[in-house]
Automatic annotation (TrEMBL):
Location in the cell: Endomembrane system
Keyword Nucleotide-binding: no
Protein name in UniProt: ABC transporter substrate-binding protein
UniProt xrefs under NCBIfam families: TAT_signal_seq
CDD domains according to UniProt: PBP2_NrtA_CpmA_like
Keyword Amino-acid biosynthesis on entry: no
Signal peptide feature range: 1-30
Keywords: Cell inner membrane, Cell membrane, Membrane, Signal, Transport
């Protein structure tokens, strides 16, 4: 019920009428305090890594952002989005499909300035399920209809001849249920669901407790896909671009640090870390950010990883928002079952969304100024999207 209320709240926010009071409040705040401090909002998942690393390492201050408040932890996407649209926070991470919904469902003046991370999600199932076909007639939890998890899962199900339904699944059908990530492990343990697809570290938590096993990694289906993106307000981009550039510089350096210091990053994010950014155990986050080589190799040996030639990590970091990804994401959203009213998708041009939603000027400059091309494996600003179930 909590997840349903969360979805309905966001559905109301992502309409012109629902977002207007929040956007008006944000506008008043911006007018009264044009030099507002940096206020970070996040959910306690690995998607928030660059934001939290940049804060912990003092990178914002290093890059000239003098006034930085302590990051604020939110428990739901709806509360995070509400705080962002109203101006209570001005830097957040958000599920990449949700950013499309925000921009074109409610015309919210938000911009994607970079990616937060790549991959970092998995389809985890009950221990007695060994194949995708074994999900027939069962219920699988997703964190949100507008999520890369829903898009990838439905691609997997279609390729395996399974149809998505919202209730009473029969043979050859899979019921999808929106569920808070924090509830998924317990739901799997008591067999309320047969599986879930979500960001880390909940897949690793299910593994560590012995109540679930990874059946597929999302990055082994859509190569180097983004999960969460970094959002900033359009008025900040227009009125104080130097400040935005400094923020992005810090975030890019934070990503570079996370990519090269995975063990330290896991500790930093954990409840054992000095800032206690998340409630997760250090050991669980280590299994996500820095899995032992032999443990990671077993996923290939058992056939869970089907594309070892892609050389995927369980979670990876690369900040540049390729236009081809946004275009492909819009295309796939058009063929993905999403609850609610989604008429804006019917006429949304993938090429237009890639150009209009994303402002890549700041991340390009940050990568080039920091000479991070090699760190992130960037060979230019274009690529081909590879999806293979």
């Amino acid at each position: 019920m909590t997840s349903r209320r969360d979805f309905l709240k966001l559905a109301a926010l992502f309409t012109a009428a629902g977002s207007l009071p929040l956007l008006q409040a944000c506008g008043r705040q911006a007018a009264q305090n044009p030099d507002a401090p940096l206020k970070i909002g996040y959910l306690p998942i690995t998607d928030a890594t660059p934001l939290l690393v940049a804060h912990a390492q003092g990178l914002f201050e290093k890059h000239g952002v003098a006034n930085v408040e302590k990051p604020v932890l939110f428990r739901s996407w709806a509360s995070l989005v509400e705080a962002f649209l109203s101006g209570q926070v001005n830097l957040i991470h958000l599920l990449s499909p949700m950013s499309i919904w925000a921009r074109y469902g409610s015309a919210s003046p938000i911009k994607v300035v970079m990616w937060n991370h790549m991959a970092g999600s998995a389809l985890t199932v009950a221990p007695d399920i060994d194949t995708i076909a074994g999900l027939g007639g069962q219920t699988v939890a997703i964190p949100f209809w507008y999520s890369i998890h829903n898009v990838v899962l439905q691609k997997i199900l279609r390729e395996n001849g399974l149809k998505v339904v919202e209730k009473n699944p029969q043979a050859g059908e899979v019921k999808l249920s929106v569920m808070a990530p924090s509830d998924m492990v317990a739901a799997l343990a008591n067999r309320a669901i047969a599986g879930f697809i979500v960001a880390e570290p909940f897949n690793a938590v299910a593994e560590s407790k012995g109540v679930g096993k990874v059946l597929r990694f999302s990055g082994d289906v859509w190569r180097d896909h983004a999960c969460c993106v970094t959002l900033m307000q359009e008025h900040d981009i227009n009125r104080r671009p130097e400040w935005v550039q400094n923020v992005v510089n810090a975030l890019v350096e934070g990503q570079a640090y996370a990519a090269g210091h995975r063990t330290d990053t896991a500790r930093m994010l954990s409840k054992q870390g000095p800032n206690k950014y998340t409630p997760h155990e250090d050991a669980v986050l280590q299994n996500v950010l820095a899995p032992a080589p032999d443990a990671w190799a077993r996923y290939t040996e058992t056939g869970i990883i089907r594309h070892p030639e892609w050389h995927q990590n369980r979670i990876d970091f690369q900040p540049y928002p390729y236009p081809s990804y946004t275009e492909k994401l819009v295309e796939m959203l058009k063929e993905t079952h999403i609850a609610g009213v989604n008429r804006f998708l019917d006429t949304l041009s993938p090429a237009f969304a890639a150009q209009d939603l994303v402002d890549d000027r700041f991340v390009k400059q940050a990568v080039e100024a920091g000479q991070f091309q090699q760190v992130f494996g960037l060979n230019g600003w274009t690529r081909e999207e590879i999806i293979a179930v």
